[in-house]
Structures are given as structure tokens and as C-alpha cells.
């Protein structure tokens, strides 16, 4: 069904979304779905490109420069997810296209995931669960693990999520330091000038920085070497922030004590070499994946869409570099 005043393809769904969100987009906004097959996509764009004014997407798919180019009347990109690194904000900015995301509503769940991953990785809960299920307990106790409380934790990216992680870990008696694009004014946590320097002084390095070209491989081989054979790496941000090849090599060679990873460089692919390692916890990008948080993200996505369609303003716009 199409709302009055909307052309059939005014709202375009780009990539898969939460099923209830897809249904609402289709039934209440008359949204079309951009085909994935190249020939079908070309035919769709030939017929409807002129009509599309708003694209709704997620961090998984995003709207790239080629698609922005192909949609001459596109005015807004509404992103389900706080991370929008798959959308080309420079191309959007150059055309004056506004972009929104879903900040705040997922902060608690992603921070919970980081802390849970950290404890699981250091204490080996997932691995010891496998140990019990494999019937290995009667043959002897599970090996001793690493205490999580009272560790020194370095956080890369002290934004909303990084700060929520820091506050949680403060209650665990952890000493928190951080590296960020800019030092955070009045932060109770210790600022360190580079990822490598941060890694050298902590037991656990937690990555909570935004993805994208500016943070690509911020955690490189040298930073992993600084973290060292007794150090642990936790990543709830984007796989691109870490040099994944260097990480896999360090874990396989025993140059890192362990890693807890919710995100990967080429999702849903996970490096084969990690699958057999018990000092690594692997999650399928579930940081925000609770019923409550995903409902809140869906609600905020629709509020952005409604607001843009009625007033031309987004509720939670992201900073888009201006083209002029
Ligand atoms: C979602 C996320 O899984 O918000 C983000 O940036 O990574 C997750 O909450 C993702 O956006 C869904 O595509």
C-alpha cells in the first residue's frame, strides 16, 4: 500500500532488514526492495530510480557511492544500526543527502556483550562448557584460567559504547585507560596517545571504535605485539578496525593469550584457523541482538523515516561531510 502523496518507489529498502521492519516498510510506506540480482537491479533502477527519495538500510548493507549516483532524487539514508561505515557519507554529503543511525538505544546491550565476551574469554566459560559436554570432566579438572576482575583494561574508542563498557568494568575493579580520536574532557579514565602505547600497558584491549576508513587496521601487528602473549583482545566494533590476518597469526603462534570477537573483517566468514582455538570466543555479531534492543532500534529507524517524510528532518542524523 502506498501512502497518499508518495510515489510507489519513494521509499527503497536496501538489503535485508529485521522482518517486522521490512513488513512495516512494505505495508505502511509502500517501500520497494532493491533487487540483489544485477540484471534485476538494473531493470528496477531504470524504471524507478527517479522516484526514490529515502533509502532504508542497515550497517550490514549500506548505500554505496554507486547507488547514491544511481538515485538522482535521493534525499535521506535511514540506517538501522549505530554503525554506518557501509554507507558512503562523503558521496551522500556531496549531494546534500542526510543520513541517520540508531545511537543510544543499543549502548547497554553492546556494552553487556563486551563485558560478557571479556569474562568468557579470560575465564574460558565457552570452552569449559564444551569440555563438560564432551564428557571430559571425569578425567580431570578444567585448567585454571585468568581472573577478569582487577585487570588493567584499555579501551579503543571512548564514545557512548566505550564509556558504558568502562563504567561496567569499573565495578569489576578494573583500571581503565583509553585511546580516542580526541581526549575526552573530564573523563575519569586515563588517556593514552596511541593504540600501541595503550596495548603495552594493559592486560585486556577492548575495541569499541567506529568502523570505516579512518579506523581501518588501527589495531595492527605492532599493537598486537605490544599487547603480548599475556594480553587479550576483545572486539565489539567492526572487524575492519583490526588487522585480522595479523590477529589470526598472533593467536595461532601463541603471541596473544586470547581473543573475544563479535565482529569480523568479512562477515559471516570467520577465519578457519580460529575455529579450533579454545582461547578464542567467537560470536556471530550479536552485540545488539536482544528482543528489547532490536525493537528499540526498529522504532528509532521508523521515527527517523517518519520525521524525514513529514518534515524533511531526521531525528538522529549523523555528521555528514558537506559537499559545498
Ligand atoms: C547491528 C551493529 O547488528 O548497530 C550496529 O552498528 O553492528 C549492530 O547493532 C547491525 O547494524 C545490523 O545490521
From TrEMBL:
Matches recorded under Pfam families: 2-Hacid_dh, 2-Hacid_dh_C
GO cellular component, as recorded: cytosol
Cited InterPro entries: D-isomer_2-hydroxyacid_DH, D-isomer_2_OHA_DH_cat_dom, D-isomer_DH_CS1, D-isomer_DH_NAD-bd, NAD(P)-bd_dom_sf
GO function term, MF aspect, one: NAD binding
Xref: SUPFAM superfamilies: Formate/glycerate dehydrogenase catalytic domain-like (SSF52283), NAD(P)-binding Rossmann-fold domains (SSF51735)
Membership in a protein family: Belongs to the D-isomer specific 2-hydroxyacid dehydrogenase family.
Entry keyword annotation includes Disulfide bond: no
Residue ranges constituting the D-isomer specific 2-hydroxyacid dehydrogenase NAD-binding domain according to the UniProt record: 115-287
Domain D-isomer specific 2-hydroxyacid dehydrogenase catalytic: 40-318
Uppermost EC category: oxidoreductase
E.C. number: 1.1.1.79
Protein name: Lactate dehydrogenase-like oxidoreductase
Gene3D superfamilies: NAD(P)-binding Rossmann-like Domain
Keywords in alphabetical order: NAD, NADP, Oxidoreductase
Amino acid at each position: 500500500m502506498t501512502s497518499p502523496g508518495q510515489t510507489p518507489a519513494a521509499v527503497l529498502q536496501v538489503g535485508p532488514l529485521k522482518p517486522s521492519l521490512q513488513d512495516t516498510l512494505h505495508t505502511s510506506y509502500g517501500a520497494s526492495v532493491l533487487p540483489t540480482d544485477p540484471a534485476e537491479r538494473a531493470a528496477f533502477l531504470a524504471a524507478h530510480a527517479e522516484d526514490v527519495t529515502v533509502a532504508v538500510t542497515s550497517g550490514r548493507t549500506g548505500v554505496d557511492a554507486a547507488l547514491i549516483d544511481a538515485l538522482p532524487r535521493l534525499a535521506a539514508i535511514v540506517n538501522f544500526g549505530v554503525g554506518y561505515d557501509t554507507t558512503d557519507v562523503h558521496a551522500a554529503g556531496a549531494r546534500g543527502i542526510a543520513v541517520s543511525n540508531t545511537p543510544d538505544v543499543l549502548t547497554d546491550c553492546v556494552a553487556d556483550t563486551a563485558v560478557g565476551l571479556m569474562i568468557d574469554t579470560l575465564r574460558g566459560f565457552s570452552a569449559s562448557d564444551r569440555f563438560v559436554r564432551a564428557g571430559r570432566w571425569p578425567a580431570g579438572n578444567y585448567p585454571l584460567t585468568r581472573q577478569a576482575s582487577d585487570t588493567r583494561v584499555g579501551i579503543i574508542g571512548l564514545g557512548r559504547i566505550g564509556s558504558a563498557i568502562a563504567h561496567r568494568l569499573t565495578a569489576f575493579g578494573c583500571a581503565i585507560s583509553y585511546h580516542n580520536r580526541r581526549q575526552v574532557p573530564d573523563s575519569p579514565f586515563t588517556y593514552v596517545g596511541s593504540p600501541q602505547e595503550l596495548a603495552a600497558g594493559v592486560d585486556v584491549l577492548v575495541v569499541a571504535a567506529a568502523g570505516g576508513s579512518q579506523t581501518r587496521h588501527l589495531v595492527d601487528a605492532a599493537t598486537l605485539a605490544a599487547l603480548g602473549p599475556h594480553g587479550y583482545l576483545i572486539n565489539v566494533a567492526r572487524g575492519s578496525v583490526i588487522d585480522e590476518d595479523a590477529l589470526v597469526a598472533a593467536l595461532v603462534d601463541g603471541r596473544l593469550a586470547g581473543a573475544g570477537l563479535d565482529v569480523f573483517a568479512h562477515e559471516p566468514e570467520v577465519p578457519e584457523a580460529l575455529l579450533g582455538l579454545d582461547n578464542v570466543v567467537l560470536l556471530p555479531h550479536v552485540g545488539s541482538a536482544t528482543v528489547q534492543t532490536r525493537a528499540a532500534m526498529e522504532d528509532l529507524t521508523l521515527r527517523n523515516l517518519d520525521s524525514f517524510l513529514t518534515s524533511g528532518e531526521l531525528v538522529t542524523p549523523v555528521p555528514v561531510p558537506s559537499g559545498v
